[in-house]
Design goal:
This protein is α/β, with parallel strands linked by helices. Helices cover about 30% and strands about 20% of the residues. It has a single domain, classed as Aldehyde Dehydrogenase, Chain A, domain 2 (3-Layer(aba) Sandwich). Helix 2 packs across helix 3.
Amino acid sequence: MQAAARGLRDVSFEMGGKNSAVVFADADLDKTIEGLTRSVFLNCGQVCLGTERVLVERPVFDEVVARLKKVAQGLRPGHPDNGETNIGPLISPEHRDKVLSYYAKAAEEGATVVTGGGIPDLPEELSSGSFVEPTIWIGLSDDAAVVREEIFGPCCHIRPFDSEEEAIALANNTEYGLATSIWTENLSRAHRVAGEIDVGLTWVNSWFLRDLRTPFGGTKQSGIGREGGVHSLEFYTELRNVCVKL
């Protein structure tokens, strides 16, 4: 942005996020767990739209934690040619070390490790790979680094909430504003909550459902501008006003 400012050039950024998923007690939990499995663990968590903060209404909190734990423990890291492999490595040893540093920081900050938190046991031929365990935490404070900073790995913190207003406040309690997903069978509430969470992309009872013609991008520290369809063309278009007196 500093370089662009010197030349007064337009900029369009799609940055990272610390995305939330908001799970209400009336949600279809089968669909919810399926969606959370993808949004937390897809591509070993290396997705800018991925979920790292799961907010769950208290009546179903324990069930969501237990079911997502079962999913995480069922993920099998390994060689991509192995048919049993369903989660791969991180992009590099450097990024693996960064993710593992957050795993260690979570322990320092007092997290309860539901599952994971380290390096998986793998055959010798895969020992040099950048693998980490799918990890779930509970019990961290809202100002913990693991709750506030983007990790970009196969991990999430799950936190209970007691009201719609609290869920909205927690979802917005971040410097980022890229994406969120809302899980509820109450469509009126879904629209109401979607209008209050400050993000560029919101999914209801789904995740990463996208038409490439629709606007894509975030708010706050998650970016400037939108891409997708006509919105991409608008960035490269200079509006002009021509007035003709007749």
